[in-house]
Amino acid sequence: MDGLLPDTYVSAGSLVHMEAVSGGLPTAADEDSPLPISASALTPAGLAGLLAEHAYVYKVKTRKTDGGNPEMYEDEVTPPRDILSSVLAGKTWPGVPPLRGIIGAPVLRRDGTLLQQPGYDPQTGLYLAAKVTLPPVPDQPTPEQVRDARTFLLGQFLRDFPWASAADRANYVALLATPILRHFTRSLTPFALIDATMPSSGKTILTAGPGMLYGQRVMTWAYSDEELRKSITAVLAEQVGVVIWDNLAEGTVIDSPVLAQLVTSGVWSDRQLGASRNVATVNDRLWMATGNNLQVGGDMASRTVRVHLDPDMPRPELRDQAGFGIPHLDQWITDPANQLTVLWHLLVLVLDWTRQGAPRVSGLSMRQFTPWAHPRRVPRPPRHRRVPHQRRRHPRDRRRRNALARVPHLLARPPRQPADDRRRPTPRRRTHADRQRHPRPVGRAVHHHPQRPPTQPAATRAVAHRASRAVARRTRRPGRQERPGRPVRVLGRTPPGVKPAEPSPHLRNAAPTPPHQRKHPAEIRT
């Protein structure tokens, strides 16, 4: 059958035929978005239709001519159903190309090249059924193209989402590029959890990003493990790249052992519904869930990548979108032309990463998902001697850098840390020489917010403490070299013939006297 029936392949020992799916309409961000081409198992009726369209099937018969002599002739027929069923019952199909799966967007091959030609790819066994007609992406993008792609994705497409931190945005970009890099990294994909503190924060729009590009199936969360297993087995039979459980109940704890088994298995095996046999399917989907204030427990805590949104306002839906990079993004992403724009810029960044040799980051472990977690090394500045006033790196900076390293592109340099999030430098340990040179003052220090004035009791204690330090500095200790003709006050004792000075009644409310204007207690006139 090699070349006889076009678009016919073998999958798991059975013949399948690729055919276009009619009736597709533009969908919303929270609706199913199937691929335009589907692989259907060949049945006797389907095989008969293909033979009638692409082959000439005949039966040799004998008839008599006008002269009474026998004559052989060909009579076109349709093979009987029993014969077609016996043909399809076989498991060995020499010469028929194998079909590994259907993808909705270009992917990176294991050798680092991009599969971007629609149709069947003999090198990977994948069939590219692109949802949009994508122009060719250059194998070596120019610096201008890379800069424009980074500006569009980070400065326009993802700019106005209320990310809780830079790591949340990095996790989402990594999830957005996961279907492209799955075959190149040869790794499992963790479970994606997108949650927010308030409704209408943009969770569904974020899931529509990969869903519209690779095909999505939106399902309702099953709160029992048995129903969850059935829904997983059923959706794996469909041709989609992203599976989304949308709008879980607020506060739901995701700790299902069935889901934990799913994300750590390369092949999902379960009993087929309505039959007494098991089916095995390659687990090549991106599994996502959305909700408000979701939690993870059990084994799912270490098998989940979280993207957290915090709008920090009671009514996020009332935000004015006139100043957004892309107003009304939920409607914008449903346009195939806009999906093409997002996908093209994303592929440019991926190919720029491979052009640099696909550098990997080391020292980051995420159990079974370690190959997925560190496909990209964030360039570090050259080593240099630390200046004394330069702040030290905090462990939180290292955690952020590791989170940003999951992004397989975009991050040629880490983003600048917000000023409000910077920590003060860690003080150096005091040595014996420091204690001798600068002794710690005896008293109670006042700590308050740097941008908020202290309360009245705190201000009073501060003034009193400064006044007591001023008096202590004016007190001299015995044993020092004295100036000629200058009386000495020794530990609170008044020199002979000198009247003790009384403290000023407004000392508590007065600022400390500068050192060059201070007078000895013996010189104060009463």
Describe the structure in your own words:
The chain is an alpha/beta fold and 526 residues long. Among the domains are: 8-99, no CATH class; 143-317 and 324-381 and 395-419, P-loop containing nucleotide triphosphate hydrolases (Rossmann fold). Helix content is 28%, strand content 17%. The protein contains 13 helices and 19 strands. It has helices at 44-54, 81-88, 143-157, 166-185, 203-214, 225-235, 257-263, 329-332, 336-355, 370-373, 395-404, 432-437, 456-474; strands at residues 8-11, 14-20, 37-41, 58-64, 70-76, 101-103, 107-108, 114-115, 119-121, 126-128, 191-196, 216-219, 242-248, 253-254, 267-271, 278-282, 286-292, 295-296, 304-309. The strands form seven sheets. A five-stranded parallel beta sheet has the order 12-13-17-11-19. A hairpin with a 5-residue loop joins strand 7 and strand 8 (114-115). Helix 4 (166-185) runs parallel beside helix 5. The chain is elongated and about 145 Å long.
Supply the CATH architecture of the domain at 143-317 and 324-381 and 395-419.
3-Layer(aba) Sandwich
Rg from Cα: 37 Å
Helix percent band: 25-40%
Distance between the termini: 119 Å
- Ranges where pLDDT stays below 50 over 5 or more residues in a row are 376-393, 408-415, 442-450, 474-483, 488-492
Question: Average pLDDT across residues?
Answer: 78
Main sheet record? 5 strands, parallel
Classify the secondary structure makeup into a structural class. Answer: alpha/beta
Extended strand count = 19
Number of helices: 13
**What general form does the structure show?**
elongated
Q: What is the CATH topology assignment of the domain at 143-317 and 324-381 and 395-419?
A: Rossmann fold
Strand order of the largest sheet: 12-13-17-11-19
Would you state the CATH class of the domain at 143-317 and 324-381 and 395-419?
A: Alpha Beta
